[in-house]
């Protein structure tokens, strides 16, 4: 199979190639990070493509108290996800489906959202006031900085599975190193669907907002997240009155970070929603994320392929084993030399796989070689007193012994190595 340039095939073809490589190389490259990673990605991609593509999963993530649950409530407009004061932590994700729960069931099972924590906005869709969000599954995630390792593990797991992440920051902790280095940079490199919300902007004086906003924007830009949208929000809708002067309320200067103080509450949430609607409508973000994962995996495979195999000569192995006799150290030396010649020129992981294969039955070799000697001896004619008969008997025994050692070498060393080399060659043809 050939593929012209990375990224030129369909997502299904890429998945097929990744799965083939995992199947071909899996047994030989166990523990190799590129392959272990590929195995996880292949499984996840196959699952996501199989599960309803009619839904876009959007996670609200961030540190404790930033307003994830409040944002969830602002979107669902009904108090379903317990906000901070009542329940200081959200230990498990909540999900709200803008559409039929029945159709979303399998996807929610896969995400691991318990059935008690699933809600629907189907009726709101019927009334058409939220039709633009049809197909959205919004998730309220546990805190990334939770003191409970279990909660953090849950967030990390989910962040790999969802299609879009809306990262909620607050004015106190927006510069958190854990957030920028531990999460945002990685997320941005993995997906296109990332939006950052600077929440609780109502707690800032109007004059402070542009400064804090610009500061966060700078942090994002510095981390290579220049393309990631930043939206100022207030999830609770508690918009304090604008400070007044003698001439009436002071209006904040217009600028990119000035929240539109919606009279309907939830300033900025409308902006967030306006960013999400076209993504949900397009409905391709899940496939795009899968495609991106697979493309990166295929690029990662580059280090697993290189020169074609030069079949190693087995003569020197047989000679080495014949002269080593039952000396285990010399047997090992011969095997090692054979492994080195078989692995020559192969990429590191495969060279190691070939060596492992060559040594896989090393422990059985001395006994097998003794048996070969005993067998050859047993074939020696017992009465060799005629002139020249001893010489002929020796030669015959030697031939039999060679043939026996040949068999031992093939069975215990060469065949395991050939299996690894064949897997390598197949992997190479699959990828080039
Ligand atoms: N003033 C204000 N308070 C907020 C805002 N968002 C959340 N809060 C409050 O901050 C606290 C933590 O919010 P919560 O949604 O539980 O945060 P979570 O831990 O990220 O889920 C609660 O008391 C919320 O009422 C906001 O935009 N403005
Ligand atoms: Mg919460």
TrEMBL record:
Lineage: Bacteria, Bacillati, Actinomycetota, Actinomycetes, Micromonosporales
InterPro entries: P-loop_NTPase
Region (Disordered): 236-256
Protein name in UniProt: ABC transporter
């Amino acid at each position: 199979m050939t593929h012209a340039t990375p990224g030129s095939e369909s997502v299904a073809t890429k998945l097929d190639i990744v799965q083939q490589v995992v199947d071909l190389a899996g047994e030989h490259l166990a523990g190799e990070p590129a392959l272990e990673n590929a195995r996880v990605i292949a499984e996840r991609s196959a699952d996501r493509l199989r599960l309803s593509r009619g839904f876009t999963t959007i996670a609200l993530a961030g540190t404790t108290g930033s307003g994830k649950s409040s944002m969830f409530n602002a979107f669902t407009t009904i108090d379903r996800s317990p906000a901070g004061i009542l329940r200081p932590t959200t230990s498990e994700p909540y999900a709200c489906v803008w559409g039929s729960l029945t159709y979303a069931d399998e996807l929610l099972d896969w995400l691991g959202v318990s059935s008690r924590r699933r809600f629907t906005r189907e009726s709101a869709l019927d009334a058409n006031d939220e039709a633009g969000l049809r197909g959205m599954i919004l998730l309220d995630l546990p805190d990334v900085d939770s003191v409970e390792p279990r909660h953090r593990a849950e967030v990390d797991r989910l962040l790999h599975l969802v299609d879009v992440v809306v990262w909620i920051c607050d004015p106190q902790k927006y510069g958190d190193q854990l957030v920028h280095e531990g999460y945002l940079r990685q997320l941005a490199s993995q997906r296109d669907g990332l939006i950052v919300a600077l929440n609780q902007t109502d707690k800032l004086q109007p004059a402070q907002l542009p400064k804090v906003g610009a500061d966060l924007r700078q942090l994002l830009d510095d981390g290579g997240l220049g393309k990631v949208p930043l939206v100022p929000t207030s999830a609770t809708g508690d918009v304090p009155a604008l400070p007044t002067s003698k001439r009436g309320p002071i209006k904040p200067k217009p600028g990119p970070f000035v929240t539109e103080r919606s009279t309907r509450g939830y300033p900025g949430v409308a902006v967030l929603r306006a960013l999400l609607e076209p993504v949900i409508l397009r409905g391709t973000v899940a496939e795009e994320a899968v495609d991106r994962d697979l493309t990166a995996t295929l690029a990662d495979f580059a280090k697993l392929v290189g020169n074609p195999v030069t079949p190693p000569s087995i003569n020197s192995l047989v000679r080495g084993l014949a002269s080593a006799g039952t000396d285990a150290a010399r047997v090992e030396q011969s095997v090692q030399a054979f492994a080195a010649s078989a692995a020559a020129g192969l990429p590191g992981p495969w060279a190691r796989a070939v060596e492992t294969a060559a040594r896989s039955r090393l422990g059985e070799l001395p006994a097998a070689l003794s048996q070969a000697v005993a067998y050859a001896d047993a074939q020696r004619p017992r009465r060799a007193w005629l002139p020249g008969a001893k010489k002929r008997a020796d030669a015959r025994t030697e031939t039999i012994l060679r043939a026996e050692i040949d068999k031992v070498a093939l069975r215990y060393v060469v065949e395991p190595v050939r299996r690894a080399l064949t897997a390598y060659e197949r992997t190479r043809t699959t990828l080039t």
